[in-house]
Amino acid sequence: MNDHAPLRRAVAVAVLAISGAVAAFAAIAPPAEILLGKTAGIEPVAIAAEDAVLRAPQNYFREERFQRGDTITALLARLGIGEADAQAIARLRPLRHVRAGTTVSAEVRADGELVELSFLTSSDTLVRIERDGAALRSSEQRAALATQVLMKAAQIRSSLFAAADAAGIPDGVALQLADVFGADIDFHRDLRRGDRFSVAYEIQLLAGRPVRSGRVLAAEFVTQGKTHRAVWYAADAAGRRGSGYYAPDGKNLRKAFLRSPLEFSRVSSGFGMRMHPFLQTWRKHQGVDYAAPSGTRVRAVGDGVVQFAGREGGYGNVVVLRHQGQYSTLYAHLRGFARGIRKGARVAQGDTLGFVGQTGWATGPHLHYEFRVAGAARNPLKAALPAAVPLAAQEMGAFRARTEPLARVLDLLAGSEIALLE
Questions:
Q1: Confidence band (pLDDT; 50, 70, 90) for 416?
Q2: Which of 62, 187, 384, 413 is the most exposed place for a label (fewest CB within 10 A)?
């Protein structure tokens, strides 16, 4: 058999395809004289100068986010609302619902007169302020939110947040990814350029416009050649019993302890011998120091009971938690404590304990964190973390039925090049 026959057939097919395309184009192409402008004469049409300029719009639509440390007056000014209406709006009670991060939309006339202002509260209440003649009226109603599922993928170039931003993935989703995989991936130290992730997540819409991101439903993270997968599962419709993230085979991804008490930071001093920065002597460092801005939230790495919360020498403001079994954790140099953190209080994994500070023997704002087993300090970056309670055997049938479609979504994303950006 001639080895070149398949090639000749392929070329013949390609030539026929091209010939067919040319013939089809020739059949629909206009005559050459039309392409060359050889048609009836073209007559100029006079246009008045005022008709050639776009008229200024009567109303403007603007959207602004209320920033931390912002004022209502500054927000209304950025929306282009005139001083008289701004003063009237500021006196209305619904403005008390505006919090940092709230997006406010407004329709404003060219002279600064308000037509309508609206925003969505954290309790899904839609607040409207509308013009009624010379007056402004406010109303509140339950927002009719719709839920949509988005699928995106990205590649790490520098950081998780940079990759998420480049792919158009909200920060709230990136934070959830860090929580979901936080027991297996140290996002301070493990990420490498070229690592990738994909995620399917909910987004809530109001009148067809996205207003906030929702829960991550399925995710895959590939780092240093190892693949981690997670799917959301709730045993009951309310999402209370047995809810959490699991591997597609049913393994509970939630560990009894998070790897880090800070969502994002960097290790400034590791476990072991070091020159103490305050005392200037060699000492064994019984924990890990995380450099972070003052006020950064410090979270409980596991469920537990507050054994101590107060001032303790060089530790400054410190919280000690007692966990199940022989485990305990310590959080030091805090600027202050979260509400309700006192001796005997019960906390859940992820609850806020306090805020990064510089109290006690500290040369700068950071968190000193210790992980102890039977009273002995262990390196929290390397210690084996116990798993949480696994999914019950009788749940596996329902689990597979609900999560297999999510696993197929991850297969789809893994085989694509969707938004491999940043």
A1: low
A2: 384
Q: Do 244 and 180 contact (CB within 8 A), yes or no? A: no
As a whole number of Å, the end-to-end CA separation of the chain is 50
Please give the average per-residue pLDDT across 353-376, as a whole number: 88
- Name the region of 11 (left: φ>0; alpha: ψ -120 to 50; beta: rest): alpha
The rounded distance, in Å, linking the Cα atoms of 170 and 104 is 18
Range(s) of the chain covered by CATH 3.10.450.350: 59-142, 146-254
Cβ neighbors of 12 (< 8 A, separation 6 or more) are none
Tokens found for residue 40: 């009836």
Token pair belonging to 172: 């709230």
The single residue listed with the structure tokens 């490498």 is 192
Query: Residue 307: helix, strand or coil by DSSP?
Result: strand
Cα separation, 128 vs 202, whole angstroms: 26
pLDDT band at 171 (very low <50, low <70, confident <90, very high): confident
Locus of tokens 């009624």 = 132
Q: Which CATH superfamily is domain 266-378 in?
A: Glucose Permease (Domain IIA) (2.70.70.10)
By the 8 A CB rule, do 257 and 323 touch? yes
**Hey, which CATH number is domain 59-142, 3.50.50.60, 3.40.50.150, 3.40.190.10, 3.10.450.350?**
3.10.450.350
Task: Annotate 384-395 with DSSP letters as a single string.
Answer: PPPB-PPPPGGG
**pLDDT at residue 94 in the model:** 82
Answer for the pair 329, 369: CB distance below 8 angstroms, yes or no.
yes
Name the token pair of 24: 């089809």
Tens-digit pLDDT profile for residues 231-286: 999 866 544 455 788 988 888 887 788 878 887 554 444 434 444 445 444 455 57
Can you say whether the dihedral through the CA atoms of 44, 45, 50, 54 is positive or negative?
negative
